[in-house]
Amino acid sequence: MSGSARLALEAWESLFRAQVVISRRFAEDGEWAGCSPREYDVLYTLSKAPHGLRMTEIHQQMMLTQSGVSRLVARLQEHGLVERRPDPQDARAQRIVLTEPGRELQREVGRRHARQVIRAMAGALEPGQLRTLRDLCADLVAANDAERPPSSEEKEEKD
């Protein structure tokens, strides 16, 4: 194995371990106001899409199976945090949107989660390191997400 290949594997492992350790710490901190971190992830994803998202679009943005996303959305819908609405561009499709209670919960948990992130990140890295990490991660996303088709939300923004 070449030095470059070994370094790529070590970098991946370091990135993955950091994500696991920090995510585990977040889960243990209990800042989720009665929802799970995965449920919050759905609420957060929807908060960035004012017109809601189709299930496939939520699935594309999360590291879950399609059935896992469906179960999460069903649970959030049962709790009145999201609702299904007809898609104006496709009468056969539905968009998942935040309800007002869902938006309020997302904001409440989001503020708590932001404090967790700041403690974990700014407590461990200097501002220059944070900028470098942000830029390197953006480069990784850009290089590896080029094949993903744009969501209908992204298409709308271009029109």
Keywords:
2 strands, Arc Repressor Mutant, subunit A, 159 residues, globular, mainly alpha, two-stranded antiparallel sheet
Provide a concise account of the structure shown.
The chain has 159 residues and is mainly alpha-helical.
Model description:
The chain has one domain: Winged helix-like DNA-binding domain superfamily/Winged helix DNA-binding domain (Arc Repressor Mutant, subunit A). Helices cover 67% and strands 9% of the residues. The protein has 7 helices and 2 strands. The protein has a two-stranded antiparallel sheet with strand order 1-2. The longest helix is centred in the N-terminal third of the chain and has 27 residues. The mean pLDDT is 89.
